[in-house]
Amino acid sequence: MFENGRWVFGVGVTALAITVASAAFGLTRAIHLDQGTPVSLLTVEHDSRESALIALGELAFKSDFLLEASPLRTLGTNMTCDTCHPDGGARDIVFFEGLSDKPGNLDVTNRAISLIEDGVYNPLNVPSVRGAKHTAPFGRDGRFESVEDFTLFAIANEFAGGIPSDLVIESLVAFQENLPFPDNPLIDLSGRLSDAAPAAAKRGEEIFNRPFPNDPNMTCGTCHVASDYFLDHKTHDVGSGRRGRAGKEFETPTLRETVFTPPYFHDGQHDSLAEVVDYFDTYFDLGLTDDERADLTSYLEVVGGGTLQEPAANAPIHPATALTLLDLSLTDDDWLLTRMLVTQLSTELDRWRGAPEAPPEATIDAWIALMRRIEAQTKVQDFAAARATLQDLEIAIAGTAGG
Ligand code: HEC
Ligand code: HEC
């Protein structure tokens, strides 16, 4: 049900015999699903396969058909990648009764939702996948080399959703690797603060690059390399392991986007950037003054801030985009993408009805009927027939909408 601007699911995970979790916190909260911006395929024109792939990838990322076979569905009927990673980001809003200790966290190694059960109640903080092109390795412990490896793992193993086709994976990877970090005019390409940054943040930048008193070869920037999106692409033990992960190494996270992604660390153990600064001050024995800690926090807030892209409102509809995307999805030997696509395209065409630029109702009806036929033909693996119907659709769209 939709409540207060959020999807609220009252499905109790307790029914799945999760007992480890119950002692740690009260099982009283409902599941909150809040997702990113709705998919809008027909408002975009594609001039390359890559651009069309990214669109299909966003669709798959946000379509509840993708994880349909996964036991995740016991948590909510419309679970998508986007449920936990809204628009590819991460926000402290997802809370799964029985699997989360705080909003933004989830025990992914639990047999209730996964093929992997480690016997420990150890929720992980959902990471953002923004900037994925630059942030290898993947997984909180950095055990995956590429977005592709992680994505395959996420669908097939982590959430037991079956083996997706190559095109599904390729498009999901294209979408994720195309997600930008927030636009941040206060840092330049080498990750240095620009002149416009506030004075406190500039003082914080100096502290960030100052050698540690007990280890003059090390600064914060040794691991968070400013010129490389604040990454060293390595894992380290910074004393953060708890709950069966003591002494474990975790991936150095980027410091871009952190303003949008509390809580922090692999298990969300810190609620604010100030708390992280306090932690490292103690852990590395830095002896920072109150003012220095505040300056370092300001620096992190500037580096981790910026603005996220907003979708254009009321953009015009390009019906021919349906042809480009269907053409690409039919190169797959799988029904899934075509099914997602036809469902989404018919929804968008339905919404278009009656608008000033829209063709007559009967024309839209005819287009949707042809799309449904394509879907039915791919469902029974008759791809040749589906291609022929796509040609009919092409003629129909060219005839009425001028291409
Ligand atoms: C129920 C919540 C949830 C859903 C749904 C979900 N993820 Fe995740 N995702 C997580 C968590 C938690 C992690 C951290 C897991 C780990 O480190 O092992 C993660 C990690 C990732 C990472 C690694 C990011 C990094 O920088 O390390 C990628 C990529 C990713 N997910 C992609 C996907 C894709 C693609 C889907 C849809 C098929 C998906 N996720 C669905 C919760 C979710
Ligand atoms: C030895 C390498 C190393 C050094 C030095 C280091 N960090 Fe980190 N940092 C890490 C690792 C690894 C994590 C992730 C820990 C985890 O997930 O449990 C992290 C996490 C963070 C986070 C949380 C980001 C998030 O999205 O969860 C912030 C903020 C941060 N570091 C800032 C700093 C600052 C400021 C300093 C200097 C005082 C510093 N780090 C020094 C390796 C390092």
Note the topology.
Blueprint: E1 2-3, E2 6-9, E3 31-33, H1 49-62, H2 81-84, E4 105-106, E5 124-125, H3 147-158, H4 166-177, H5 199-208, H6 220-223, E6 235-236, E7 250-251, H7 273-283, H8 290-303, H9 320-329, H10 336-352, H11 361-379, H12 383-401
Antiparallel strand pairs: 1-2, 2-3, 4-5, 6-7
Helix pairs in contact: 1-4, 1-9, 3-4, 5-8, 7-8, 9-10, 9-12, 10-11, 11-12
Bound molecules: heme C (2 copies).
The site of one heme C has 24 residues, from helix 6, helix 7 and helix 8.
Alpha carbon gap, first and last residue: 40 Å
Give the topology string: H per helix, E per strand: EEEHHEEHHHHEEHHHHHH
Arithmetic mean of pLDDT? 88
The total domain count is 3
**Which segments are poorly predicted (pLDDT under 50) over 5 or more consecutive residues?**
1-32
Q: What oligomeric state do the depicted chains represent?
A: single chain
Q: Label the CATH architecture of the largest domain.
A: Orthogonal Bundle
Counting helices, strands and paired strands, the structural category is mainly alpha
| Bound molecule types | heme C
Q: What is the CATH level 1 assignment of the largest domain?
A: Mainly Alpha
Beta-strand percentage? under 5%
Supply Rg: 24 Å
- Principal-axes geometry comes out as elongated
